[in-house]
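Protein: Sigma-70 family RNA polymerase sigma factor
Species: Streptomyces sp. NBC_00049
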Amino acid sequence: MAGPLWPRTRRGSTDEALIKSVYEEHGHALLAYATRLTGDRAAAEDVVQETLIRAWRHSEVLVNGKGSVRGWLLTVARNIITDRYRAKAARPPEVSGASAAPPVEMDHADSVVDTMMVMGALDQLSPEHRDVLKELYYRQLSVAEAAESLGIPAGTVKSRSHYALKALRDVFRDNSARDSGTRDNGRRSGRPPQQPAGLREVVA
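Structure follows.
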């Protein structure tokens, strides 16, 4: 459960205890989230460590800001992963002898980043709304099939889908606005993330 904003504290030894308590409360969820986005446990652990370092350096943001601690941590973790994918894609391939590895396609990296952004956005929806979208747009089920799978009336599927898509658009819009304000001019900003087949057409 996401905790309340941290109480105002003095810098110093208090911060060490603060970060420890944050890790104890949110570390498991943060690691699970990072593992799901990276597909690599070791990389996810590294992301969690970097996230906590940034939390320690900028604890005043959490003290004085709005929203939950967990929400802030997940956003920081997602941005770290996004930056690493883009940096990896932009890095020139290593050359061994006369043969060189084919260049990394930037478009592929962007598609991976976009997929992560969609997953992160879905995580911000309620479980009921998220489940409906997964049935309709990931499993490609009809309304009737989704209703049977979820054990709810078809009308409820339609209603939840309508409100879930609206909420998803709001999340994408908020994320785009936040990213365009924090990324430097050399990075992509303001472009709506690509969604999986189906979601791309209805959310864009």
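Remarks: The longest strand covers residues 95-96.
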